[in-house]
Amino acid sequence: MVRFVIRRLVALLPVALGASLAAFLLLHLVPGDPAEVIAGVGASAVDIDRIRGQLGLDRPVLVQYARWLGRATIGDLGISLVSRQPVLGQVAARFANTLALTLAGMAVALAIGLATGIGSALHRGTVWDYAFSLVAILGVSIPTFWLGLLLMLWFALDLAWLPATGMDGPAAFVLPALTLGLNAAALVARITRSSVLDVLGQDFVRTAHAKGAGPTRVLWIHVLRNGAIPILTVLALQFGYLLGGAVLTETVFVWPGLGRLLTDAILQRDFPVIQGGILVIALAMILLNLVTDVLYAVVDPRIRYE
Predict the structure, then answer these.
(1) Measuring CA to CA, how many Å separate 51 from each of 40, 45, 85?
(2) What is the pLDDT of residues 70-112, one digit of tens each?
(3) Contact present, 84 and 158 (Cβ < 8 Å)
(4) pLDDT bracket for residue 33 (50, 70, 90)
(5) For the chain, which residues make up each domain, given as ranges?
(6) Which residue pairs, CB below 8 angstroms and at least 24 apart, start in 299-303?
(7) Which neighbouring-strand residues pair with 86?
(8) Separation of CA 86 from chain center
(9) CA distance linking residue 120 with residue 130, whole number of Å
(10) Domain boundaries 89-305, corresponding CATH code
(11) What is the DSSP letter of 303?
(12) What is the dihedral of CA 199, 224, 188, 277, to 10 degrees?
């Protein structure tokens, strides 16, 4: 297993380097001179030259990238142009909030998606199967922001059971976690149903039943383990989607996460924050891929030797 993890880490190093290059080039892909964009309309040539010198934009691009990457490797992502605070501290605090919301959303997706998918597969062709499939299709089709607004309208405004915005206390997690989790649960349910149905038709499952194994044991020991690879794949994809794409949910519920920080930074043209936030999200996705590969190897030991 250790060799497998080392091989995966080595394979991911070029990906991490490419992600850092893409995050750095964001500043140079902006139309026009980045220094003029940062300085704003009406800035004098002296101010523009001063900003260009402060950011090192008067040096070759490769030199700028090498300096930026060198500082990033020791945790220095620069200083925010708006707050004048270190970018790493801002990004880390907001990323922690987004990660907490993502974990809560994934808990909802796991609880509902797995239960619905397994139940639908075990009752294939029944009314329950059609009902679960209909709910899954609706869950995939409903836009996240619209679902969030509906939940806010019902449970926060009409019933006054839960807070509408912010993250003050555990109750504040409920509505945004449901918004993220219900959308992800629909896809998890459909993949789980397909995977379980595929394994249920295998010979070893019939053999396990013939040997007297109970339905619960067959389901958890034989079916789910052998059908876990597609389920793990969709869970990893959904986790990455929630982690990097929770901007709408954070905006609707005024959640102080990384998505809102990046949105504000884009509107304010705070390029160091944009670069730092994109880099952190990219590295988190790379780490998520590594964890998924390790889980693959745990579920199916043959993968370790491929």
Answers:
(1) 11, 10, 17
(2) 888 888 888 887 777 888 888 898 888 888 888 988 898 888 8
(3) no
(4) low
(5) 2-87, 89-305
(6) 299/225, 299/228, 299/229, 299/232, 300/229, 303/4
(7) 79
(8) 24
(9) 8
(10) 1.10.3720.10
(11) G
(12) -130
